Amino acid sequence: MKKSMVFGIVALLLSGITVLFAGPKRDNADDSKVIKFAACNLKAYEDTTKVLAEEVAKLGYKLEYTFLADNTQLNEAVERGEYFANYHQHTPYMQEFNRGHNAHLAAAFKVFLDQAGIYSKKYKSIDALPQGARIVLPSDAGNNWRGLVILDDRATVYTHH
């Protein structure tokens, strides 16, 4: 069974967003049973990656995984062929990355989307925001829209030029 198919089946079982690429170069035949994988260093991704490693082992493969903090580094590493796949993003983020970095990443599975929220040390709820309050949103278009959707749902967005 091809490694990408094995990986795909396991990824479907574990309900994760995965990005596949051609993968690292092979030095010898022993490497054919190794899947190099990178994930975001957040607990949810760390936990599911460890489960993925266990499931892949049952199929006779070894998942060599690394956790990285920077989403751009994760995608660049896959694009360069250092890893077969990574796990950390939704499709709009990946598409923006591809456009901005002339990359060729492709989503293999779309399963879950991390929760998004608005957080404040000063206000206990979005309803407590005063008129004219300033809100910081992510600068990348792939995540920026998530904050705007939350605010739009609450009719708290006012855009001006």
Task: Looking at this protein, list some descriptive labels.
5 helices, D-Maltodextrin-Binding Protein, domain 2, 161 residues, 38% helix, alpha/beta
Task: Describe the protein.
With 161 residues, the protein is of the alpha/beta class. It folds into two domains: 3-109, D-Maltodextrin-Binding Protein, domain 2, CATH 3.40.190; 116-161, no CATH class. 38% of the residues lie in helices and 15% in strands. It has five helices and five strands; from the N terminus they run H-E-E-H-E-H-E-H-E-H. The protein has helices spanning 3-14, 43-58, 71-79, 91-101, 141-153; strands spanning 18-20, 34-40, 62-68, 85-87, 106-109. Strands 3-2-4-1-5 form a five-stranded mixed beta sheet, with helices on both faces. Helix 2 (43-58) links the parallel strand 2 and strand 3. Helix 1 (3-14) packs across helix 2 (43-58). The longest helix has 16 residues, at 43-58.
Q: What is the CATH topology classification name of the largest domain?
A: D-Maltodextrin-Binding Protein, domain 2
- The number of helical runs is 5
CATH class of the largest domain: Alpha Beta
Instruction: Estimate what percentage of residues fall within beta strands.
Output: 5-15%
Determine the CATH superfamily of the largest domain: Periplasmic binding protein-like II
Q: Biggest sheet, strands in spatial order? A: 3-2-4-1-5
The parts where pLDDT drops under 50 for at least 5 residues are: 9-22
What's the number of domains?
Answer: 2
CATH architecture descriptor text of the largest domain: 3-Layer(aba) Sandwich
Order of helices and strands: HEEHEHEHEH
Please tell me how large the radius of gyration is.
19 Å
What structural class results from the helix and strand content? alpha/beta
Q: Major sheet: size, sense and barrel closure?
A: 5 strands, mixed
Helicity, in percent? 25-40%
